[in-house]
Amino acid sequence: MAENLFKWKHFESEIIILCVRWYLKYPLSYRMLVEMMAERGVNVTHTTIMRWVHQYSPIINERLRKRLKKTNDSWRMDETYLKIKGKNAYLYRAVDSDGNKVDFFVSEFRDKHAARKFFKKSVEAPHNQQPKVITTDKYGATEIAILEEIYYGSLSCKTQHRMTKYMNNIIEQDYRFIKKKINPMLGFYSYENTVKTICGIEIMHMIRKGQVEGIQCVHSEVGMINELLGVAA
């Protein structure tokens, strides 16, 4: 028997999915969504929508990952800042030379351990292959992380590491979507919920980039997400 992900919810599954999908896809705040739903005769609080996002984002991310198209073996990697409880945290990200998302990783620290976790996660993802080239800026901790991952076998010994900042323009531009989405949030309040929210935002960005098999337009996007969450079309 299929799992009912919406059992005991006080709202229809279609409303929940709509709120979650819109929040992850567009630069909207929770309170903006409350007003948009109110115009449609649906009274829901911003905290309820927030709980929906935290619950369903990881599920959408996990199930869509199985349908991601393959990336190539030339990576551009960098990190950007987030705010969690007013303190700096870091979002590690990489794209391939075609601009397709390789992977992402949220860390409370910017150091070699965080970079190593990012590379290990990226290499182990089924939609990625061993990188022949990794381009980064000249941050020393990232260089050490790559050398250690090569030593321990996660990265191939043939992997070339280029530290050339100007060649990372492609990922700097990719940050624009994420920043446009994150900036209205005014920061996050816990590491766990940051990870849950970011994974949903990033997977929706992958859809926008055309990285998910079977999604060609917004209608197929809606249909696939409904299907993955067990809601009939």
UniProtKB/TrEMBL annotation:
Keyword DNA-binding appears in the UniProt entry: yes
UniProt GO MF annotations: DNA binding
InterPro entries: DDE_dom, IS_Transposase, RNaseH-like_sf, Transpos_IS6
Residue intervals of the DDE domain: 73-211
Biological process terms in GO annotation: DNA recombination; transposition
UniProt keyword annotations, A-Z: DNA recombination, DNA-binding, Transposition
Pfam families assigned: DDE_Tnp_IS240
Name under which the protein is recorded: IS6 family transposase
Naturally occurring in which organism (per UniProt): Alkalibacter rhizosphaerae
